[in-house]
Amino acid sequence: MLKEVIATRFITPLREGGSLPGLVEADDFGTYVMKFAGAGQGRKTLIAEVVCGELARRLGFRMPRLVTVELDPVLGLGEPDQQVQELLRSSGGTNLGMDFLSGALGFDPLAFEVSPAEAGRILWFDALVNNVDRSWRNPNLLMWRGDLWLIDHGATMIWHHNWPGAQASAERPYDASDHALATFAPDVRGAAAELAPLVTEELLTEVTAAVPDAWLATEPGFDTPDDLRRAYATPLLTRAAVIHDRVTGIEEGK
Questions:
Q1: C-alpha radius of gyration, the chain, whole number
Q2: Is-annotated flag, keyword Transferase (predicted)?
Q3: For 158-209, how does the pLDDT look when each residue is reduced to its tens digit (9 = 90+)?
Q4: 105-248 has which fold?
Q5: How many CA atoms lie within 13 Å of 250's alpha carbon, on the beta-carbon side?
Q6: 169 with 129: CB under 8 angstroms?
Q7: Which sequence spans correspond to the domains of the chain?
Q8: Can you say whether the dihedral through the CA atoms of 123, 127, 129, 130 is positive or negative?
């Protein structure tokens, strides 16, 4: 389960990227980047953030810690931006937060060097979860204290937007030609040998258990949140064993 915190102050909206998260303070005195349950992308974006973020952490990637943030819509009453005020009003209840990495820099492939091994591990993981939002245009990577950190996994597992076609969607190749780390000779096969055996049914059960029931309870075609959790785990378990053979658009390191 994720740690639960309560938002005590809305600091400011963050307008980078395609979504509109906000910076909040919480009752544990932490500062978090909060992603709203009422945002246009819906709760599936938050589910993807939790499943993929927690999976990444357990596979040894650097990820800001995730928490659930309880939001009282009254916090938005003093917000001058009408769009942000409406977002706060529509997001009462459970939202997603991640630790704010103060002083972190956005990754620039022209300014930072990445080893083939690290590039391969990140690219393999993105192929596993079908991350379509780690391009050179929008890397969703941060440099913090000299290390590379992964953020923003809302645009992953696109098969969960159409469960009847999920199996066919999950069997498709992963086009890495625009990947932010494609130019670093990523050792994808080396990463697969290391990471694929770690993606077990037990691990995925643990990861999907971190998703709050409230985000899962109303999905058509599933009787219980646990049924939906198993549906999230199944494509990832199958994909982990074979996805290194389905990555296209790059020349791997030797």
A1: 18
A2: yes
A3: 999 999 999 899 999 999 999 999 999 999 999 999 999 999 999 999 999 9
A4: 1.10.1070
A5: 30
A6: no
A7: 3-99, 105-248
A8: positive
